[in-house]
Amino acid sequence: MKRISAFLFGILLLSSCSWLDVSPDLGMTEEEVFSNYTNFKNYLYSAYHGGTQLDFDVAGNIFRAYCPIGINSTTYRFTMNTITDISDSGRPLRSHVMKGGFCGDDNARTFVNGRAPIFATMWIVNRIANRCIENIDRLQGVSDPDKYDLLAQAYFLRALAHFTLCNYFGGMPYVDHALSGDDSFDLPRLSSRETYDRVAQDAWTAYEYFDRAGLVRRDPMPGEAGNLQHSEINHAAGIAALALRSRALLYAASPLSNPEGDVSAWAAAAEAASFTLDTALEYGYYLLPFDEWENNWKYVDYTNEQLWAWTAGAIADNNDYIVSCNAYPMTNNKNGGAVCPTQNAVDMYETAWGDPLNTEADREAAAALGHYNEQRPYVNRDPRFYKLVVYDGASSEGAPVINIYYNPDTGTWPTTALSGKSRYFGYTWGSQTGMGVSNTGYYSRKWWDGKYTSTKFAVTDPLFRLAEIYLNYAEAANEAWGPNGGVAGQISAVDAVNVVRDRALMPPVLARYAGDKDLLRERIQNERAIEFMDEGVHYFLDIRRWKVAPERMRKTLYGMYIESCPVSAEHPAGRNYVRTPLSSDRQSTWKDEMYYFFLPAEEANKFSVFENNPTW
Fold first, then answer.
1. From CA 45, how far away is CA 316, in angstroms rounded?
2. For burial by CB atoms within 10 Å, which of 73, 82, 287, 397 has the most?
3. How many CB atoms lie within 10 A of CB 177?
4. For 336-387, how does the pLDDT look when each residue is reduced to its tens digit (9 = 90+)?
5. CA–CA distance from 386 to each of 294, 297, 415 (Å)?
């Protein structure tokens, strides 16, 4: 009898480090694995959680490959956003090299340092999913709903694996059967649009099986018995499959995958988002009120806005999981990378009246209305700014005022009293390259609890949440039918944007942008950047699929250099704010090769007809 790499208890995975190797004999027959419900489920669930047989046994590492905070194979590095224009990494590590247009091959290499590299991991996940689909009829003594649930998750995971591969490496062969050592690997490489369309098909099949299993959502609806801590909630349900389908079709319609501008692709994406919205609302999902908005990624494990999420549990600010996001002043961990927003990112936050501030002309227009003052730049801004950015004069739970300014009278950077500790947030730019400190005048607050390292708090990756579906719909509907158009019976594109803005306590999109497709497109793109700032890989992928990365990555990146000064009419805050270019080694550039990562030859050569992506 054939045997596969499986353990009766716990995680079951291929034991080989190559996703193409034939599974070795570990003493359990295929019949024992696939006929028994517990064994079958454990084998399938290894595609979520990993296992010791793949040399990355930390729970959740596969989740980090699906939706990575950072792509590198080591722990203390950088986030995906720090290789874009909106963030600088405090430590000048590989992120700065990559922003400069050079990429090493270990970002995709197989099994480095016990981590879960994206390319190899996704093919293993795909093999697990295909094995489960092919062997579902061998299950014995299992109810139809349980059988449909397993089958639905397998289709979902197969779709997710191909989606993840396509995001980072472009169109892929769509492998819908379990490869073995006897198979030919001369499989055609699809275009990215074709790959995303196949993902959407598998995601829809998954949804249909979830629906038959009664699992459109896996946790109880609001008001029902039970709570959001259901033990199975980190495994996909029907609403997650619909969310994946919505995102895949949106990406398929976008300029990178749809260079001809086929409007039917945008219409299909709008229809998918509309169906997902209606289903989510029917099943009790809603946008959290703004005072609970941050709960989507910290403080609680799960929320009713998350359509699928994975929680790291209660961890401290200096934990491996988020140390690449939180800076040395917050964590006392010099190994951390630190996400430091650029001034380019801060300019994305509108005024409280909805005035854009992206360009100098925008800021002058807002100033003429009395809505903006360059020497009081943090007053009356989008409320999300105060929850996402640590700036000079900000407060936190651990510090009444955070200081990121230079005092020319004393020649010092004043310290901040943070949770009873004296901490430096301000440094001379470029003077502390071995630590994760800011060279922009800002730090990210996204994954920080506002305290020092002695406390623990819940940290969660919201892989899909309802706000995204509103913005997916808004973008697709605007491209298909214009600002005031939409799917029959659904709200308009501009109304969908305003739903998200209203939750953030922001006014509707200004009238001068709301009636023009091209202008509304810019505001939708800006809205996504703000709503998902430092969350997952939205911005990294968005600027690529929109094909705006060449423009944004070639712009000069700025920070805000701040010195104290006497209070005056010109300097009402007692500060002199000076927009200052970052040093040349922290600037970004663009090459078209940067749309996708290339593959080490050891991976690309596994498909004999696979043409590798160009190197950077």
1. 27
2. 82
3. 12
4. 788 999 999 999 999 999 999 999 999 999 999 999 999 999 999 999 999 9
5. 11, 16, 21
